[in-house]
Give the backbone structure.
Amino acid sequence: MPANEASKPLVFVTRPIAEQALTELAGFARVDLWDDEMPPPRAVLLERIAHADAILTLLTDRIDAPVIAAAPRLRVISNLAVGVDNIDLDAATRAGVAVGHTPGVLTETTADLAFALLMAAARRIVEADSYTRQGRWRTWGPRLMLGRDVFGATLGIVGWGAIGRAMARRAAGFSMRVLYTTRERKPAGKPHRHNKAEVPGARRVALDELLRESDFVSLHVPLTPETRAMLSAREFRAMKRGAILINTARGEVIDQRALYEALASGHLGGAALDVTSPEPIAPDDPLLTLPNAIVTPHIGSASHATRLRMAQIAVANIRDALAGRLPAYCANPAVRLREPT
Ligand code: DGY
């Protein structure tokens, strides 16, 4: 290896990412790439991180306190995701390791998928396509594949972050009534700071009212101790009969068994899930037997352009931290970066 190459910092990349971003990374670092579709086993992760100055991770890599402790040179964990629930943020902060992530860039792409799932569930598109492929389409039928109107229906958005608001903007194009919940406090007597400008007519309500009133409920909260299993049997019972649930957030936000029961009993009209618990969902999970459940393999941000941008941001976050700066997109901004060794 040429001397100047050997002096570059070492970055462990836990999966093949966009080629262009890897080339950018190789411009300032030695790249140790785990070139496999599946995550590196824990023993491999511990071995490869031991000498790394940075690691580029995916949401399927669990970066907990023992992993961080096994990496004495590590200065940044750069997650190719907006969510950082796979990383022990406190342990990283205590160790002086920055945690980078990729907010913003995937907002519209993820909202596109959430709205596509809403439409697919409302109009039974997946079921109708299978019906055609199975050769069951014999004639036009006045009672065939009846679904629900999206136009003019009420959409309840749980979580009023960037993706939730992007979902609301799409709903406005379908003249939907939009209700939302947020944990953010609003100053007394003032409208919510996001509300007026972005989504005229959207109304902030308590979760119970949102569940009671909505024809569609779409989840857009991060996974935290407060949001884990926030929708369970009680909440599903509180939803309107025939309502449809969309989840593009994290599988653990709902109690999946309770969702199955609510769908199987006919209380809920349908569910469209891009995220499950666990991931991947077991092929024999009872949810997959239901015609009114759609399950996609966590593809919310999966467009060519967005995945490239995410990879470039993840690389830029590494570049920042290795230059001694906080990453531009930092999930633990209180961190005091550890000195290079
Ligand atoms: C994220 O970024 O957290 C998504 O779940 C994957 O894009």
User: Anything to note?
Assistant: The mean pLDDT is 95. The chain has 13 helices and twelve strands. Residues 211 and 239 are 5 Å apart (CA to CA). The radius of gyration is 22 Å.
